Structure formats: structure tokens, C-alpha cells
Amino acid sequence: MDEDNNIEYRHFFQEMLEAIPWPLLIIDRSLFVHYYNHDTVQLLAAQELLQHQTLDQLISDRAILELVQRSIRLNRPLEEECTREGTATSWKVSVNPLTHAPLTIEISQQNTTPEQTYRYFSIAIEDLTELRRLERARRDFIANISHELRTPLASVRLLVETLEEAIDTDPDQAQIFIEKIETEVQNLTDLVSEILELSRIESGQMPMSIEPVEAELLVREVMARMLMLAQRHRVKLHTEIEQGQTRVAADSKQILRVLVNLAHNAIKFTPSGGIVVIGTHLEEGGNMQTFFVRDTGIGIPPEDIPRIFERFYKVNQARSKADFIGGPGGGGSGLGLAIARHVVEAHGGRIKVESVIGQGSCFTFALPVAFHV
Predict the structure, then answer these.
(1) Could you report the per-residue pLDDT of 229-244, keeping only the tens digit for each?
(2) Do 252 and 180 reside in the same domain of the chain?
(3) Which string of b and e fits 285-302 if b means at least 16 CB within 10 Å?
(4) 106 and 146 share one domain
(5) Where is pLDDT greater, at 168 or 63?
């Protein structure tokens, strides 16, 4: 093969390596790297060329090195899933002998039959970290769904059994059980609706109708909706509106739902005589409008704050029911704040919470100001 053909062959071979959709190296029996693709450089965060470096200079994980050395020693393909030492990174490592240019050696003194020993080995590395995270999320989701459905379904079954006993002997009591069953069925319906809505939002299938809307109108609409609930539980409801005529780019229906959810939670976890404030103000610079719901409730434990916006995550329910007087009680599906986070992020904003136990909480998010050309 002349030099021009050799250059063309190497170029073609390198293009084939780059076409492989995961990191791949080719080493010899001494672990020296001969070929690799760009994905390998990114995976190993290499700062220089990899040729003529040995694999143990690039990868320090013993499990991976032992797998490669075992494949070389046995002259056969091997594959294992390895967790990188000191990290949560999970790799599927596949080592395969290459049939090009085999060597012939004696494998033992007792067996004088020569055996082919491969000169080169390919190492393919597939990063399974995200896949494993999604699998854990799926398992957690199924476990949470099962838990959330089990409680109301058990209540409905118990109520039906009691209703069967009372329907002929105590019609008034039977009517009470029927109303309780209707409540549980409605709770189940709401839960399923929230799950479907969250799924649509997370997959980007929730249509957003973004239009200019006055910040003040959003706050006053929530105030009107939540006033009766606040009065029922003897919680004072106020507004703080600063530069409320600023127009924000928002899907008013979705943002109203976020604010209603935050206000409902604030009322729920605020004792009688407490205060909930729904407000808005223009941020410095004039590009973002902040909305907030602040309460004087029981607060959120510091250890719960990092996870408060996760789906199905709930602050200890025994605390939420016992530590305040006069609120509508704990409960809920644990999906409201997850939906709120996704809605706000879909608008290009961020939602956050600050809280002090025994003093209250403040949920805040900002939306972009709608500028007119």
C-alpha cells in the first residue's frame, strides 16, 4: 500500500470511529492507546492527545482496568457495568478483541498447540448515568402513584362496606357516607388530572398562550378567588402591589394557577389570626416582574427546602397537621409545587422559597416584562 492510500485508509478509519455514537478506544496488549474518537476525549476530559498514553494513565478505576486486562488475558469479549470510583457515574464498558493481525503464541508448557492471541482490542464506553437516573425516577414515580392511590381507594372501599350496612337501617347516615365517597372520588379525579397535567408540562406538550397581561390584574384575581377560603380559616389576606400596571409576558391561566396554589398552601399552613400577603413588584433593571406569596405560618424545615419542588415530595404531614391551629389541614398530592415550578420555568423564570420555622415562608418567582415595539 503506497503512502497516499495509507493516508486515505487512516482518514476513512478515523471517520468510522467518529460515526460511532459513544466513546471508543483501540489499545494494544500493553494498554497503549492507538486510536480513539472525539467522544472519548470529552468523556475523559483529556487535555492532550491520547496516542501512546496507556489506559491506566487515562482511567484510574480498578474495576474497568481489571475488566480490560481480563479480556486481554482470556482473548475474548467481555462486558460489565461499572460505577466510577467516588462518583455516581455509571458506565457500560465493552471490550472486544479485533481479528486484524493476530499473533501466534504458546499458551502453556503442557499444551504445545499454538493459539491465536489478538494484538488490538476495542473499548466502547456507554454512559448509563442519565438512563439509571431516569429508571430511578420511574420507579419512584410508580411507587408514589401507588401510595397516593392506595389511601383514597382504601377509604372508598371502607365507606362502601359501611354504606351497605347503613343504607336500609339509617338513611341519614347512609347519605353522609355517600357524600364522603363523592369527596374521595373527586380527590382521585383531581390526582389523576394533576398527574396528566404534570406529564404534559414535563414533555413540552402543554400549549402556552403567552400574551401581555398586567401584573396587578393577576394578583387581584388571586385575591378574589382566595378571600373566602382565608375568611373561613380566619387568616388575613392582603396585597402588596408596586408598579402593578407593568405588563408581563405570561399565560394568564397557568400563572393564575401557580399563584392560587401558592396562596392556598400559605393559608393552609398559617394559624388563625395569621397573615398571607400576595404581591408583585418590578425588579431593578425593569426587565423582570416579581410575584410573591408571603405568610406568617409554621415555616418549612431547612432540610425540606431543597426538595420542596419535587413531585410527590411532602413536608412531614404529622407536623403540618399538628403544629398550627385553625388551618384547613395538611394533605394534598405533592404535585402542586412541582407543577408550579415547571410552569414558571416554561415562562423563562425561576421559583424559589425562603422560610424560617415558626415565622413563615415566602415563595417568589419572576416573569419577563412584555415590551411593546
Answers:
(1) 999 999 999 999 987 7
(2) no
(3) eeebbbbbbbbbbbbbee
(4) no
(5) 63
Nearest to 306 by CA among 271, 341, 276, 348: 341
Number of domains in the chain: 3
Q: In this predicted model, what pLDDT tens digit does every residue of 303-323 receive, in sequence order? A: 888 888 887 666 654 444 334
Q: Please tell me the distance from the alpha carbon of residue 252 to that of residue 208, in angstroms, as a whole number.
A: 9
Q: Which of 202, 228, 262 is the last residue of a domain?
A: 202
**Could you tell me which residues are beta bridge partners of residue 54?**
32
| Cα torsion 144, 147, 152, 153: sign | positive
Identify the CATH number of the domain in which residue 21 sits: 3.30.450.20
CB distance 343 to 255 below 8 Å: yes
Q: By 3-state DSSP, what share of the chain in percent is helix, strand and coil, each rounded to 5? A: 45, 25, 30
143-198: pLDDT as tens digits: 666 656 666 677 777 777 777 767 777 777 777 777 777 777 776 776 676 666 66
What Rg, from alpha-carbon coordinates, does the chain have? Answer: 31
Identify the CATH number of the domain in which residue 153 sits.
1.10.287.130
DSSP state of 54: B
Q: Does residue 190 share a domain with residue 229?
A: no
Cell 420507579 found at:
139
Q: What's the residue count for the chain?
A: 373
How far, in Å, CA of 275 to CA of 77, rounded?
Answer: 68
> pTM of this prediction?
0.54
